[in-house]
Design a protein that fits this description.
- By secondary structure, the chain is mainly alpha-helical.
- The chain is built from five helices and two strands.
- Strands 1-2 form a two-stranded parallel ribbon.
């Protein structure tokens, strides 16, 4: 979590914290920021690596090594992601983002794993 959303008295950029509950957790020793023990592995430090890890619980680098994964040519066939589960149970999935959904094959991935209705710029 970006610490700048916290109050200035806690090292953030805002007069009043926008994340008071996360600030409370940090004071209790639970921290999700870049300086914590919850660092992302190299497999999650880039766009698709992070999205696939969050939605399919797959380390994309391991998948690539096993199946010659190319994020521009495939949508991880055989993966059963959160979107698949939700779709199978009657949910309508949406992926909202403030950039082009085609960047890093995001639209291809989300259409293939949950038939998401994608809203981008």
């Amino acid at each position: 979590m970006e610490q700048t959303y916290d109050g200035m008295n806690n090292g953030g950029d805002f007069e009043k914290s926008l994340i008071p509950n996360l600030s409370r957790l940090r004071k209790e020793g639970i921290n999700f920021g870049a300086r914590s023990s919850f660092m992302a592995s190299g497999a999650m430090g880039w766009t698709m690596g992070s999205l696939v890890a969050q939605t399919a619980r797959i380390n994309i680098k391991s998948f690539r090594a096993q199946d010659d994964f190319d994020p521009n040519a495939t949508v991880i066939p055989g993966a059963y992601a959160l979107g698949n589960i939700l779709e199978d149970n009657g949910y309508t999935n949406m992926f909202l983002l403030g950039s082009d959904a085609n960047y890093s094959s995001r639209s291809t991935y989300f259409k293939s794993h949950g038939d998401y209705d994608i809203k981008d710029v």
